[in-house]
Amino acid sequence: MISNIPLMIVPLIVFNLVIAGLAGIGGADPWATQLYSVQMLSGGTWIMTLGDLMIVLSLALLFFEIMKSTRTSNASVVDHLLSTFVFVAFLVEFLLVPSASHSLFFILMAMAFFDILAGFTVSLRSAGRDVNFR
User: Fold this and answer.
1) What is the pLDDT of residue 124?
2) Average pLDDT, the chain
3) Distance (Å, rounded) from C-alpha 107 to C-alpha 42?
4) Do 30 and 19 meet the contact criterion of CB atoms below 8 Å apart?
5) Please, is 5 exposed, middle or buried when counting C-beta atoms within 10 Å of its C-beta (0-12, 13-18, 19+)?
6) How far from each other are the two terminal CA atoms of the chain, in whole angstroms?
7) Helix axes 103-129, 50-68, angle to 10 degrees
């Protein structure tokens, strides 16, 4: 049952913890907090912010969600349903919570939507291949 928990709920929880101030990161926009910078060979400076790190980690979770959607069991239906609930939670929070009106939150919500689309698409394509006509 634990494998049915959608991984995209992790960015939703982390975003809410940071915005609520429970992650120990303060400021007007905690997602603009610079984590580190690297001097590049070209002479430019590459800066990694907390928001950038959140997007990268969420993309990794989205990859694993898509890998989970390749299962062809009854559990995948529950997984798709829970992923839909996570997207609805993202959408409701984006529309109703002032702190969620952030471009990072919108990108995370789009990832949750792509998770639903990819999950249903992969499931439908793999289910079409499982049908035998004799």
Assistant:
1) 75
2) 86
3) 29
4) yes
5) middle
6) 35
7) 10
Q: Is 52 exposed, middle or buried (0-12, 13-18, 19+ CB in 10 A)?
A: middle
Q: Which structure tokens are listed for 13?
A: 């929880």
* pLDDT tier, 78 (very low <50, low <70, confident <90, very high otherwise): confident
Query: How many Å apart are CA 60 and CA 115, to the nearest integer?
Result: 12
10-55 pLDDT, tens digit each: 999 999 988 887 766 766 788 888 899 999 999 899 999 999 999 9
Cβ-based burial of 8 (10 A; exposed 0-12, middle 13-18, buried ≥19):
buried
What's at 49, amino acid-wise?
Answer: T
Is a pLDDT exceeding 70 seen at residue 133?
no
